């Protein structure tokens, strides 16, 4: 016989307009603690400053150290001062950072999943000891030099070269669209050598290495984006990453960064949905809140569906990554879906906010503009489509 106590135990929790599918229940206590800690940090210390940072095109100066103190830099790496958290915990941190602004998540992603990961995975013990502890604390900032003015989707077409001369490596060339470029204390740079593509650790003040910031951006404004220039930049033999000797090395770093984007896009989408939901319940037209109109409810439900679906996808891929079962092609699937979904949510949210949606008083237009960059960096939507297409057909549409 079913008792009252049995009924209490099987009664589902109340529906939540923000977590409609109760995905929170799938997280561990530690994962929820990390998520809530990062969420509190963003909302308490950063959210009120982000409109001005975006408007005036700067990353808050104190953010790198604060992120380091919180353990967000290289948080999924083991040793060398890195916390060694799970992939899911790292993803949740990316989600909460990008719910603030893509610039925050981009900084953490480039620092931890590109620059630090490259040194951690492919560097010498000396390189690891020299850079990783300081980078984990936010005392040293890194950047990742792969993309060039004429080599984006096809990094094998890079023109930056490294030749070995008189016992030194000599770099010549340039890199473009480099997050953290002019702020970086160290750059991980990829160049063609006679024996293939190699990676190099280039300290900021190395003669022949200079940077130029990219101005007049309309997207990712709360983030530093630069050009890296190498003019007979001479490096000791110890600057080469000993384990990085082919293009597979930088591509594996990109896979790490793309994984964080899968989660970050959910954060941007959630912020837009929540702004639209809140606005719709307080904005009155024709004598009642616009949330009471059928077309508005349809938009809100479609946004909710996208946010919750994208979060489930991110969590599933995170569990696969923690189990060592995640394929790069599945990461492409996740980035392709979640970024496009986030853009759809942002655009729909903007229509609910109407004219208010284009101001920095609300986060929607800021996220929408940022997502246009997220859509194309770390692999365009077209490239990820072809990666997944190759995986399911066995036929490569590009080489």
Automatic annotation (TrEMBL):
Catalytic activity field: glutaryl-CoA + oxidized [electron-transfer flavoprotein] + 2 H(+) = (2E)-butenoyl-CoA + reduced [electron-transfer flavoprotein] + CO2; a 2,3-saturated acyl-CoA + A = a 2,3-dehydroacyl-CoA + AH2
One GO process term, biological-process aspect: fatty acid beta-oxidation using acyl-CoA dehydrogenase
Root EC class: oxidoreductase
Sequence ranges assigned to domain Acyl-CoA dehydrogenase/oxidase N-terminal in this UniProt record: 28-139
Domain Acyl-CoA oxidase/dehydrogenase middle: 143-233
Pathway: Amino-acid metabolism; lysine degradation; Amino-acid metabolism; tryptophan metabolism
GO molecular function, one term: glutaryl-CoA dehydrogenase activity
Matching InterPro entries: Acyl-CoA_DH_CS, Acyl-CoA_Oxase/DH_mid-dom, Acyl-CoA_Oxase/DH_mid-dom_sf, AcylCo_DH-like_C, AcylCo_DH/oxidase_C, AcylCoA_DH/ox_N, AcylCoA_DH/ox_N_sf, AcylCoA_DH/oxidase_NM_dom_sf
Acyl-CoA dehydrogenase/oxidase C-terminal domain residues: 250-392
Keywords: FAD, Flavoprotein, Oxidoreductase, Transit peptide
Keyword Transit peptide applies: yes
Listed EC numbers: 1.3.8.6
Keyword Protein biosynthesis belongs to the record: no
Co-factor requirement: FAD
PANTHER family: GLUTARYL-COA DEHYDROGENASE, MITOCHONDRIAL
Similarity section: Belongs to the acyl-CoA dehydrogenase family.
Protein name according to UniProt: glutaryl-CoA dehydrogenase (ETF)
UniProt source species: Rhodococcus wratislaviensis NBRC 100605
Primary gene name: gcdH
């Amino acid at each position: 016989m079913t008792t009252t106590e049995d009924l209490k135990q099987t009664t589902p929790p109340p529906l939540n307009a923000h977590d409609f599918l109760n995905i929170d229940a799938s997280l561990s206590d530690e994962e929820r603690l990390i998520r809530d800690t990062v969420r509190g940090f963003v909302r308490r210390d950063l959210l009120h400053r982000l409109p001005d940072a975006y408007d005036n095109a700067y990353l808050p100066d104190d953010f790198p150290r604060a992120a380091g103190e919180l353990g967000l830099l290289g948080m999924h790496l083991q040793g060398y001062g890195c916390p060694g958290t799970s992939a899911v915990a790292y993803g949740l941190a990316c989600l909460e950072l990008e719910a603030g602004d893509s610039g925050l998540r981009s900084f953490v992603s480039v620092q931890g999943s590109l620059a630090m990961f490259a040194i951690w995975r492919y560097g010498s013990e000396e390189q690891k000891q020299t850079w990783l502890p300081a980078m984990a604390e936010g005392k040293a900032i890194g950047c990742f030099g792969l993309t060039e003015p004429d080599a984006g989707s096809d990094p094998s077409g890079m023109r930056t070269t490294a030749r070995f001369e008189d016992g030194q490596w000599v770099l010549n060339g340039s890199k473009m669209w480099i997050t953290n470029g002019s702020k970086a204390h160290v750059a991980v740079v990829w160049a063609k050598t006679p024996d293939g593509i190699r990676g190099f650790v280039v300290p900021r003040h190395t003669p022949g290495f200079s940077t130029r910031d990219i101005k007049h951006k309309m997207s990712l404004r709360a983030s530093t984006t630069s050009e890296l220039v190498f003019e007979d930049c001479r490096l000791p033999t110890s600057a080469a990453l000993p384990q990085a000797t082919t293009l597979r090395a930088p591509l594996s770093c990109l896979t790490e960064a793309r994984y964080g984007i899968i989660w970050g896009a959910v954060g941007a989408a959630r912020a837009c949905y929540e702004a639209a939901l809140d606005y719709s319940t307080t904005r009155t037209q024709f004598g009642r809140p616009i949330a009471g109109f059928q077309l508005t409810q349809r938009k809100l439900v479609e946004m909710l569906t996208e946010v919750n679906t994208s979060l489930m996808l991110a969590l599933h891929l995170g569990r696969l990554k923690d189990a060592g079962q995640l394929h790069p092609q599945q990461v492409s699937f996740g980035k392709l879906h979640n970024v496009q979904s986030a853009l759809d949510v942002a655009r729909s949210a903007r229509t609910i906010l109407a004219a208010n949606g284009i101001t920095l008083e609300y986060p929607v237009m800021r996220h929408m503009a940022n997502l246009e960059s997220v859509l194309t960096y770390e692999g365009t939507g077209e490239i990820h489509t072809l990666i997944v297409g190759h995986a399911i057909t066995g036929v490569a549409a590009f080489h």
